[in-house]
């Protein structure tokens, strides 16, 4: 293999464009000009003798060859970055952008403040938090890791336990006065239930799980809105305990079905199963795990 074929020139810019889905955003992340990024990628394509991107006036996407090349180069760039960090001791001078996907009141009330602390410790690091319940593609969407809750479906991801959480069922005193209190989970079929992402609620007692299909006229994937719907009497809600604690303490909501609540549902830090995890992501994850090691719902 000749020296020319071993050139690394343009590879960092290529990976950045693929991650950012555009030359302008890649230039912003690399803190350089768009023309520099474009020039480096064009030279790389010339050396390889193939187009890595299909360009139009509105979008940039990887070609088939570009996608294959990207999968190899992404690990190469991550590994090189990690090696540089180990040699130079740059772990105390994090730079670049850390992107995290999360959703729910737990993330808003507890995880986000912990990441604000992390950002304060590393003034040269940009931190972007995206609050969305959608399941992200870490490669295509450019996220370093995500915070997820409950049972995970994607076995291709690495999952690390962040905190165990308990569920709680509640209703307003007005709703219970008008409709009565359910004596067991099966009675919920006769009640109006407030649905978040799932209309099958899981209860447990004496180690036995009981799934109940519920229905109602209000559905929402925002915990704060769900709490308000409960408080005005639209129905019974069933979410993590931390979402309802303040309203219960104030007396605007009343716990129901307590012997059947599901316990120890886990919140996770999840990320792509890759050989090299960027140092900024590894340190942020370590910060979160340390922050929540003694956490109780």
Verbal overview:
This protein is of the alpha/beta class. The protein has 3 domains: 4-87, Arc Repressor Mutant, subunit A, CATH 1.10.10.10; 90-164 and 266-291, D-Maltodextrin-Binding Protein, domain 2 (3-Layer(aba) Sandwich); 167-263, D-Maltodextrin-Binding Protein, domain 2. Helix content is 40%, strand content 24%. The protein is built from 10 helices and 14 strands. The chain has helices at 11-20, 23-30, 34-48, 64-88, 105-121, 138-141, 173-179, 223-231, 241-250, 279-291; strands spanning 53-55, 60-62, 96-102, 125-131, 145-149, 157-165, 167-171, 194-195, 200-205, 208-213, 218-219, 237-240, 254-256, 265-272. The strands form 5 sheets. It has a 5-stranded mixed beta sheet with strand order 4-3-5-14-6, with helices on one face. Helix 1 packs across helix 4 (64-88) and helix 2 crosses helix 3 (34-48). It is elongated and about 75 Å long. InterPro entries: LysR-type_TF_proteobact-type, LysR_HTH_N, LysR_subst-bd, WH-like_DNA-bd_sf, WH_DNA-bd_sf. One of its GO terms (biological process) is DNA-templated transcription. Keywords: DNA-binding, Transcription, Transcription regulation. Belongs to the LysR transcriptional regulatory family. This is HTH-type transcriptional regulator DmlR.
What is the strand tally? 14
Q: Helix coverage percent of residues? A: 25-40%
* Approximate strand percentage: 15-25%
What's the helix count? 10
Strand order of the largest sheet: 4-3-5-14-6
What's the overall geometry?
elongated
Structural class call reads: alpha/beta
- Please summarize the sheet with the most strands: 5 strands, mixed
Going by CATH, the architecture of the largest domain would be 3-Layer(aba) Sandwich
